[in-house]
Amino acid sequence: MYWNTDDLQAAGLPTDRGPETWQEFDKWAQKIKADLNKPALTIPDGSNYLDWYFQGMVWAFDGAYSDEWTPTFTSPGTIEAGKFLQDQVRKGHVEISTDPTVAFGNGNVSGLLQSTGSLGGLNKSATVPFITTFLPGPSPSAATGGAGLAIPNGISDERKANAVKFADFMTNEENTITFSQATGYMPVRKDAVTNPREEQFLNENPNARTAIEQLGENTQPQDYARVFVPGGGQRIGAALDRITIGNEDVETVFDELNKETEQVVKRDIEPKL
Question: What is the 3-state secondary structure (H, E, C) of 141-197?
């Protein structure tokens, strides 16, 4: 999470942390709406990874997208999280945006839920002072993930050897430090974090330290229904658009989502297990 510290101060809120729970976020949002007449938070729509950002909120409400291969969109916690999100949008506390980083950087909203990789760009473009914070809990309430490097089994030994050299180049200590400092993404090696060059950078740029600290305290891997079930992310994102932008009934939409996911699992996953 990213927070405009000028806005937090103007609304009489703490300027050195984010809300510890989504219930506290609601109280913060009421103050920001009343005092500053702007949304407290902006997030992307369902076509731009709202399913990714909502994952942590679901966990904070003791829900989940799935229990391994079993969809759980109709569980009480997941339904509660969906209704909370919908209610926050209705109240004007949360704004669904096609370009949330720009909206936050320009000061049009007080907070942003966005990738750690947005930090580098915001450091250059934001016109407002900001801090980075953990996502609201209870923990764990932030999803791990990202990209990876892999070597296909079916290529020649020569190409495999070259691929290993490339993977080493991309992920060695010096290069992951350079990449993470420029973007805000996590360093991919533990030894990079204790490198004197990185330690100095983190001391001078505490906003970059948040993701590293959150990794050990507030994260878990994503649910199967999003990352392993074909079309999972797009399917969840479309459902979230229906309850936020479309203001449709949460229980009805999530029940349909649950059934659709079950069908895909039975058709595409179970025969291969």
Answer: CEEECCCCCCCCCCCCHHHHHHHHHHHHHHHCHHHHHHHHHHHCCCCCCHHHHCCHH
